[in-house]
Amino acid sequence: MTNLDQRVSGLEAPASPDVLEIEAVGALPAAPVVPAAGRGQVRELLYFALRNKKLIAGFSVVLFLLVLAIVGPHLTKYDPNAFGYALGEKPSTTHWFGTTFNGQDVFTQFVYGLRASFLVGAVGGGLAAILGMTVGFTAGYRGGIVDELLNLITNVVLVIPTLVVLIIIAAYIKHRGLVVEAIFIGLTSWPWAARAIRAQTFSLVARDFIGIARLSGERGWKIVVKEIAPNMSSYLVMTFILLFGSAILIGATLDFIGLGPPGAMSLGLMMYQAVNGAALLLGNWWWFVPPGLGIMGIVGGLYVMNVGLDEVFNPKLRKT
Amino acid sequence: MKVYFARKLVIYLFTFVVAVSIDWAIPRFMPGDPVEGLLDRMHARPESAQALSGFYTKSFGLDVPIWKQYLNFWAALFHGDLGRSVLQFPRPVSTIILQAVPYTLALLVPAILLSWYAGNKVGALAARRRALDNTVLPASYLLTATPYMWLAIVLAYVFGSVWQVFPISDAYSPGLNPSWSWEFTRSFLDHWFLPFASLFLVAFGGWAIGMRNMIIYELEADYSHYLESLGAPNRLVRRYAFRNAMLPQLTGLALALGVIIGGALVTEVVFNYPGLGRLTLSAIQNRDYFLLQGIFLFIVIGVLIANFIVDIVYVVVDPRTRVGMQGGQA
Fold first, then answer.
1. Measured between CB atoms, which of B34, B138, B247 is closest to A27?
2. What is the mean pLDDT of chain B?
3. Closest Cβ opposite residue A22 in set B218, B223, B327
4. Mutation for B interface: A9, A12, A18, A293, most B CBs within 10 A
């Protein structure tokens, strides 16, 4: 559940069909059309990327947490679900992040929870990106009745509060693992991406080089893959990053109301247990601070990274 | 303008039908028998399981053909019958939900409106002043990346547990009864402030960022450059930019509703606030599925109404939709 904000990075999607037309008047930003990158261009982008503080800072935080998620479980000798350690103990050398009121090791739970978050982000965000691109490209390239239909579906899914749908699904489904949770998140969070990509595709399809590609007899999907997608690759990357972050937030919310996969440790579940375990009244701050900070680190890092990427890809925004 | 509203209404009506169908379909088409699944989780004893199984099969209306089940579901819906709660048997689900709705609205409406207003103002200011831009913007990114429940937990811990300036559970002191008395109002506001503040803060971040980015984009637009080249004062250019930047923020408001409602649900859980969020949690924990489905329908209806209000405001704010120019013909 995010402030799943296309707005966050300035990736503003025209938000309803009527606004689409206003775009012509110039009320909405469009992604810069970056010509398909040649070698010199890659070097140029790299030059700006390495000098962009926001990109570096955001990337470092995300990378650090990713490494911690991969290495962490090997650093700890405890089990995330095991009980029997000291009860509600402060952080110490034996228990780096302290222990919970039930006698569990917080650091171990934290690193396993980070793993779960990255998995949900990758699978959920990835699936949403694929769906969004498929719908967006198809609607934008085909136009006409196909577009009308896809647009209607997109609008409907967009208006339905998806988190509540997820709550209902999670409450009923029998076999839920982390991947199943992520898949359902992906299935419900693609609409704004589809809409944004559709609008971008529209503006590209009107250009001459697409017309030439059509004249040369290339097939529709090939034009999309070879001509359209590369020309908005930066936009697609940023869309994926936002979907990744939002999938993590949605997953944490579901876990927090006790609808996460049973037995799987996650950052949302840690907060759920902390609230239920009276961590607030007992003052066990080391129990609930790490999971929230972890999520904030990943998602915030991704958002800041996105702003940096925007500046790298879009020459207008580069600071001189 | 008529076309505009007609089109919108068709979409909302269609959405409502889809939502109700989802609500109807999920228990029936998920793998496994819903009744068995429910009983399985209740760990009921065999003899009580037998009775419950009969009760559930009948309550779901599973003993008739599937198309009839669907029609029955709609018929019951139009009679305002969402089934009976298992948790608070035999009270109707709709009564229980209606009791919780005012509390959720009391949190949501002010949080949404005020965060939107303040976020837009501050975002627009940030686009203008470097110092503000360098402080407000990073803070906004952190806020918008914060899980709603976590900010709620931290606020509850700092202000409720450590400093003990605000209560952190329930909507009013246990000894009081809801009334218009001064004492009750005070107690209510005391309990209301922290959950409101945490909702407000997270939502605020998103609006501030959005507005700041939109303004910067607008100032790059041709009309801004044209005005500047005519020698128009900066203030005037900014005012035009602000008005244009408002429009996407307004549609953004409709889009963000689902997210903020999700935030309100978990915030209520943290503060044990007696709204729909707490109700959802207890419905989940007690496997009260009729209640859960009823809550879903209520939220969908609320979101649709809110969307329609935003559409009306849009027409008021954007004259183009009124005179049937670009926007109106959509």
1. B247
2. 86
3. B327
4. A18
Across the interface, of A8, A159, A292, the residue whose CB is closest to B153 is: A292
Cβ pair B258, B108 in contact under 8 A = no
| pLDDT level of residue B75 (50, 70, 90 thresholds) | confident
Range B65-104 burial, b when 16+ CB lie within 10 A, else e = eeeeebeebeeeeeeeebbbbbbeeeebbbebbeebbebb
Nearest CA in chain A to B246: A27
Q: Could you give the C-alpha distances from B41 to A171, A173, A273, B284, in angstroms and in order?
A: 11, 12, 20, 11
Determine what percent of chain A is predicted with pLDDT higher than 70: 86
Residue of B213, B270, B300 lying closest to A161 (CB–CB): B300
Complex-level ipTM beyond the 0.95 threshold: no
Average pLDDT over residues B142-160: 93
Q: How many CA atoms lie within 13 A of B38 on its CB side?
A: 24
Q: Give the residue from A2, A7, A241 with the most B CB atoms within 10 Å of its CB, the best one to mutate.
A: A7
Predicted local distance difference test score (pLDDT) of residue A117: 95
Q: How far is CA B81 from CA B34, B76, B92, B193, in A?
A: 20, 5, 8, 34
Dump pLDDT digits (tens) for B259-300.
899 999 999 999 999 999 999 998 888 877 788 889 999 999
pLDDT for the residue numbered A36:
52
Quick count: other Cβ atoms within 10 Å of Cβ A108? 25
| pLDDT above 90 for B213 | no
User: A241 CB near a chain B CB, below 8 Å?
Assistant: no
- The yes-or-no verdict on residue A105 having pLDDT over 70 is yes
CB A260 within 8 A of CB A266: yes
Chain B contact set for A164 (CB, 8 A): 258, 261-262, 295-296, 299-300
Residue A205 has pLDDT above 70, yes or no: yes
Is residue A18 less than 8 Å (CB to CB) from chain B?
A: yes
Which of B148, B163, B127, B147 is CA-nearest to residue B197? B148
Q: Inform me whether the C-beta atom of residue B240 falls under 8 Å from chain A C-beta atoms.
A: no
Residues in B touching A294 (Cβ below 8 Å): none
pLDDT over 90 percentage in chain A: 36
